[in-house]
Amino acid sequence: MSAPPPTVKVPFSIYRYEPGRDRSPRYQEYTLDLAPHTPLLTALLRIRAEIDPTLSIRYSCRSAICGSCAMQVNSKSRLACETPVGPELEKHGRIVVEPMRNQPVVRDLVVDQSPFWTQYTKVEPHLKLDPRRPMPEGAPNPMTPAEVERFYETPRCIACAACFSACPAVEVDPEFPGPMALAKLYRYTVDPRDQAHQERLLRIQPGGLWLCLRCHLCTESCPKDVRPSERIRDLKEMAIAVQGATEQGSRHAFYFKENLKDGGLLNEMKLARQTYGLFGLVKELPQGVRIMRKKPEMRKKPHPIEGADEVRKIYDALDAKEAPK
Amino acid sequence: MRRHEVVVVGAGLAGQRAALAAVQAGREVAIVSKLHPLRSHSGAAQGGINAAIGKDDSIDAHTYDTVKGSDYLGDQDAIEFFCREAGPIVLEMEHFGTIFTRAPDGTLAQRPFGGAGFPRTVYAADRTGLALLQALWERLGTERFTLYDEWDLTTVVVRDGRVQGIIAFDRKTGEFEEIAAKSVVLATGPAGRIYGRTTNAHSCTGDGPAVAYDAGVLLKDMEFVQFHPTALLETSILITEGARGEGGILKNAQGERFMSRYAPRVLELASRDVVSRAIVTEVLEGRGFAGPYGSYVHLELMHLGKEKIESRLQEICDYARHFAGIDPVTQPIPIYPAQHYMMGGIGTNIQGQTSVAGLFAAGEAACVSLHGANRLGGNSLMETLVFGKQAGISAAEYAAKAPAPVLHATDLAAAADPLRAWSSRKDGEDPSALRLEMQQTMDRYVGIFRNEADLLEGLKRIRAIKARFDRVRVVDQSRVYNLNLEEAIEVGHMLDLAEVIIVGAYARTESRGAHSRTDFPKRDDARWMKHTMAAKGPEGPRLSYSPVTYTRWEPKERVY
After folding, report:
1. Mean of the pLDDT values across residues A80-104?
2. CA-to-CA distance for B266 and B242, rounded, in angstroms?
3. How far does B499 lie from chain A, in Å, by closest CA?
4. Which residues of B are less than 8 Å from A222 in CB distance?
5. Cis peptide before A250, with omega less than 30 degrees from 0?
6. Of B94, B238, B487, the CB nearest to A141
7. Is the ipTM of this complex over 0.90?
8. How far is it, in rounded angstroms, from Cα B388 to Cα B23?
9. Rounded to an integer, what distance in angstroms lies between the CA atom of residue B223 and that of residue B506?
10. Is some CB atom of chain A closer than 8 A to the CB atom of B123?
11. Average pLDDT over residues A294-298
């Protein structure tokens, strides 16, 4: 064997908390000598084995396939097993490790994942069949490679919940299914074997699909490149195709586009009326007044911007391109 | 006390399939698992699942390949049954929603695998286990059952010659609890963490076989340990056999495609024991590379081209990039064999029945014996489903007729108190230090090539660690998610199994499949065409032997 690789001193600051036993969370400092490519999970296991066997973590495969060890690493949702310590150290000077967000802490870095699993179950993640159209007997359902491509990367999801932890919509609305569940819904909604595509798209709309803020933090945090936010976008398109822009959320999206197409500029008054409808608008009146006070520019009558024609041309070209679908 | 009709321990593919079968048979079912079902190690299986559904393939060909792969130690009735069931099972999994890779005509694509005469391995890119695990869990989710996830098995209660239930430890509360059951299926998966160099997950600690052994159940063929030829060097993370199935080649430090010397006809696609021995031989004879993480050889994929590598071998591309800093599109991957699979396990028949009434087992925790002395790639995923289903059916049938189980108040105390006592010691042995020493011992003395002196030394050391384990100490005093207590329980389990492996390997004075004795290099059918059965005795394992079942295939010399 040749010489071992050079190591660096890595300072860790690790969240410690056992609800019911500790009065409040605290951060415990540890320092290890590690080769820069060492995965964070290996470092945490070394802390357990060599320094402190009371540190609680959830882990199993150490190869980014079981989805157990997602946590907040320097404030980002990451899998500990595939996050090398070197780059974190370079960027932040130390490594702050905290439990995932949007799920209650059980102990230290271990969270109770029931909110996550509940949302996953709620999208009915299984093939829904029509008894009048049975599966082929003694044969697989035919599925072309092109049909398999339509799943994109959703089959790679390992349910690690990194996206659920990163999602601000989950944080404000516990009813929001979250990125993983919606990516799972997408996976079943494009499955040629599933016979409830329409029903799925209708069911997910109220209080579900349209709460996504399009911040893309889920896609950024996903260790498997599932790109939940892109699949949520696809679901929105499919939902409008099935039902038209009838939901508050879909109306907002639809008229947002129409608005821009019209004059190249968002007419927020008009958009609000189109989204909420006249009656709905009355309900939102106090909010509207508050906004008007804070943003006087909204009181001005909007007019088409310079180059509005160009904007319309772009939309027309895009619409023409999508038409054949 | 909790009560259920059928309790399945383990929620990987075998456990889930058993649970589904038992629910479908009308029984009330609970699943107890140390991991959430979707985190099971089945999900780490990469390459694929074997079924002879190809146009030119046949059930007979699959049977013959498996018999030959087993080095004639597999029970041929079990292998025939398995190969017949494989086709319907793969179709069932497709109907459950598995997203398999497809051929251009829309049928299931199949790739070549080691030791197989035809491209027989159905796959989902290189994440076949994950694809199956998702589909089965999501199908099972439409049925009614109770799930105890993150519960650790500590005891199987056997009284009056039959199973009465289990005792398990709820990691979230720290409580030991009794779960009475009319029948129990053990599907707890691998035990690879007995070794340091293993492809297995940290959770693969052989809990089912160890607990069954403790309850007087017979373990079978435990000395047969498979080493996967291609694991990443430092971490032993698996690089699928599919990489060679897709055309990957192995080269030594002299740039030579050395498999031509060991398996001139099929080269890299010889069975795993053959390829692993070839790699170790190359290294021992000075033709390996050397680096800070030990000696190695190269797995080359570059000639396959970026597109094929990134589509068919997407996950391992990520593994090589993330965990070894190697881009397989442009660089060879440094690999070395690592422990991968236990051919042995809880002895069962084709129905999953163990040596104790009401107790069934399936999957890697069990030994039917399908794989004999060496498992073929792609057969283990299929095994979990074929025999998981059988065990579930059998457990349901048994439970339908069994009397109500009887657990005494003393059962819980007898099982839990000694484990709790570990936490009150002021001084004692650190479980993670014992685990490390056990792993180093097994890596060094009970690896790919074995001999009498090494095995005796290994046994001596394992027994010394076992003696120290009697004074094991749990430092963590919390009841919630106490991993320190869990690791102590796991080390206890693994030390028992390590001893059984060594005693069986020492007794078996021949070389067969994955069991290679340099002091007995030939297969000895006259003396050793038999299964090793191990029972727990006061002084360690007591061995007996049982015959191998033959149907149509006479033992021949095994050449690839």
Report:
1. 97
2. 15
3. 24
4. none
5. no
6. B94
7. yes
8. 13
9. 9
10. no
11. 78
Which of A18, A46, A59, A63 would best serve as a mutation to test chain B binding (most B beta carbons within 10 A)? A63
Interface of B with A in 61-90 (CB under 8 A): 90
Q: For chain B (length 560 residues), average pLDDT per consecutive 10?
A: 97 98 98 98 96 95 97 98 98 98 96 92 96 98 98 97 97 96 98 98 98 98 98 95 94 98 95 96 97 95 95 90 92 97 98 98 98 97 98 98 94 93 96 98 98 98 98 97 97 98 98 98 97 96 97 92
3-state helix/strand/coil string of B62-108: HHHHHHHHCCCCCCHHHHHHHHHHHHHHHHHHHHHCCCCCECCCCCE
pLDDT (tens digit per residue) in A165-195: 999 999 999 889 999 999 999 999 999 999 9
Query: Would the CB atoms of A140 and B108 count as touching at under 8 Å?
Result: yes
Cβ–Cβ gap A68/B43 under 8 Å: no
Integer CA distances (angstroms), B145 to A45, B5, B172, B554, in order: 34, 11, 20, 45
The active-site residue out of B39, B272, B277, B450 is: B272
Cβ separation of B475 and A3 shorter than 8 Å? Answer: no
d(CA B353, CA B18): 13
CB pair distance less than 8 Å for B315 and A65: yes
- Residue B18: helix, strand or coil by DSSP? helix
Q: Does A127 sit within 8 Å of B39, measured CB to CB?
A: no
Residue B261: active-site member: no
pTM of this structure: 0.95
